[in-house]
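Memo to structure team: turn this sequence into structure tokens by end of day. - J.P.
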Amino acid sequence: MATLSLLASAALHVNAATSSQTDSIAMTDSHHQYYTENETTAPAEYDSPAENNPAIDNQSEIWKYNKRTKLGFIFSTLDRKSRLGGEITSKWGIDFQQEFNIFLHRRPIAGFLRFGLDIAVEFDYINYGGNLFNGLNFGSHDDGEVPELGHHYLTAGLAVGPTATFAPFFGSSNRNLAALRFRPYFHVTPSYASYLVSEDGDTEMHNAFALWCAAGLEIQWKRLVFGVGWKGSTAKYKGLMDSLMDKWDEDYESDHERYKFDNNMIILSIGVGF
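Reply from structure team:
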């Protein structure tokens, strides 16, 4: 009898263990199925964080179009220093720039700031009075008469300098607002410069090497670029003082010295990025 009792007790323990193991496996399968179903039916926003995080999604769009072609209107003054006094003020002027911006680091600082280097080719024409196209109208002049073109200024150079680009709305869900960038810059522009004077039958070009400094701010929205800037230089134009003084004082005698002239420009520009 004792033997039968022990065998019955052992059988009950085996059945209980088997049942517990079966329940555990079933529970594990149930949990696995639950999580699998939840992963399958999870909301789409968790599948691709970049699609629902504006700060990540906008990055590729914000930093495009770093080559720029700009056309600007120039307000300029040529300071003749104390010897003649006062300034010559421009009638109008045109600025043309072809710029390329190189970023110095791949990832924006805090998502919205990148430092870079600007390289630009610049051409400026300024009209200080007179018509440069008079020289093309030969029929209106007597034989041997030199047309009077007036006073004109030309300069061409290569600009290099640092820039910082800000995208303060980079995290906005509005893509149009996120694409707005602000770019302050500083340029140094070694240039060839020439002041053309054509009066009283004489036409002269007074050349100089001009080292310009420039600073300004550009606002870019996608491809569209707006800018305002200052540009200035001090240069010695060969024979320019003699030419101006001779027109002003008939008894003037040249001392063959080169005198410094300050040229300052304010440039309002519009352009396109690509």
